[in-house]
Amino acid sequence: MPLAMAPFGGWGALAAFLSLLRCRGSGEKAFEGPEQLMVGSGEFQFINCTASCMDPKRLVLETALNKTLLESQTQWKLFKVYNISKDEELLCSSTCGGKQETKVFHITVFYPPKQVLLTLSPTTVAVGTLFTIECRVPAVAPLECLNVTLLRGTEILCNQTFVGTTLSPQDAVVTHNTTAHREDGLYNFSCEAQMDMRSCGGGLVHRVSDPQRLEVKEPVPNNQTGIIITIVVVPLLFLVTSVLLYRYWWRPRHN
Ligand SMILES: *[C@@H]1O[C@H](CO)[C@@H](O)[C@H](O)[C@H]1NC(C)=O
Ligand SMILES: *[C@@H]1O[C@H](CO)[C@@H](O)[C@H](O)[C@H]1NC(C)=O
Ligand SMILES: *[C@@H]1O[C@H](CO)[C@@H](O)[C@H](O)[C@H]1NC(C)=O
Ligand SMILES: *[C@@H]1O[C@H](CO)[C@@H](O)[C@H](O)[C@H]1NC(C)=O
Ligand SMILES: *[C@@H]1O[C@H](CO)[C@@H](O)[C@H](O)[C@H]1NC(C)=O
Ligand SMILES: *[C@@H]1O[C@H](CO)[C@@H](O)[C@H](O)[C@H]1NC(C)=O
Ligand SMILES: *[C@@H]1O[C@H](CO)[C@@H](O)[C@H](O)[C@H]1NC(C)=O
């Protein structure tokens, strides 16, 4: 999973906080202090607990979350922590030469796009009339790390970035009003959402909506043709029928 690919990037607390908000930052390494990690909601994280000495007495990872020990050496233990659904602090502790050492991992949960919902309304339009393309990406955060692109076939109709620094998940919505062209009926419309958390210790998440077709009808003249047919042809048929009936019914009587 790309979401938990970069588990060991270390920053100072402030630098990490700022990069979290701006989703930028080059990831300067801080040797000491807490480590900042970003994890997609419900994802896992590898934690490497390391002691400063070669023969630590007790090397543990303290967390209420489910974890498994993947690998163990005298100086370090590698854990996998599962199902991280909210911001957490994990604590590695060890005892070296009678002194206790701790290291804190701050885990910030982000909400990658899980669904991309595309709606065309109406789904049937006449050439030259307006229709709306709406793309909704439910429950994502942080929004400023998200790009939403509306596509007709492979052509980009619109792409949008977002502002807002809140870390609580919310829906991202893009609407695009456009006029129907005859060729719109030949392509699939789709919507792509991309969240880039690579600069903050997360991954790159990419999701695409189901394709949607637009049914494009010929414009109003079609209807007029129908009306003309009704007005002209029906009375004509009636007339012809009447004439024929007259001939067949009345001629014998006169004879
Ligand atoms: C854990 O960290 C120690 C010390 O930095 C390192 O030597 C070791 O290779 C790491 N283990 C893994 C599995 O990355
Ligand atoms: C840990 O896993 C067990 C079984 O897989 C589950 O019942 C329990 O709720 C999990 N605990 C947490 C905190 O997720
Ligand atoms: C993951 O966490 C959620 C909420 O904390 C819980 O409902 C779910 O059972 C957990 N799943 C596993 C596999 O532990
Ligand atoms: C967004 O559109 C612009 C031009 O319209 C393009 O240069 C850019 O690469 C697009 N970005 C994405 C993520 O598609
Ligand atoms: C698109 O049109 C709808 C009504 O047809 C309107 O409510 C909406 O604000 C329009 N959106 C944009 C982005 O122009
Ligand atoms: C549109 O999408 C459908 C369903 O995925 C696919 O079968 C069809 O080939 C696509 N058409 C075009 C023109 O891409
Ligand atoms: C969004 O698109 C812009 C322009 O193409 C690009 O610079 C930026 O990296 C993209 N962001 C994400 C999160 O994909």
TrEMBL record:
GO cellular component terms, semicolon-separated: plasma membrane
This protein's record includes keyword Ribonucleoprotein: no
Superkingdom assignment: Eukaryota
Coiled-coil ranges per UniProt: none
Annotated GO MF terms: integrin binding
Domain Intercellular adhesion molecule N-terminal span(s) in chain numbering: 34-115
Family (UniProt): Belongs to the immunoglobulin superfamily. ICAM family.
Residues passing through the membrane, by range: 227-249
Designated name of the protein: Intercellular adhesion molecule 2 isoform X2
Annotated keywords: Cell adhesion, Disulfide bond, Glycoprotein, Immunoglobulin domain, Membrane, Repeat, Signal, Transmembrane, Transmembrane helix
Location relative to the cell: Membrane
Bilayer disposition of the protein: Single-pass type I membrane protein
Range of residues in the leader sequence: 1-27
KW Signal (keyword) present: yes
Predominant location: membrane
Single GO biological process annotation from the record: cell-cell adhesion
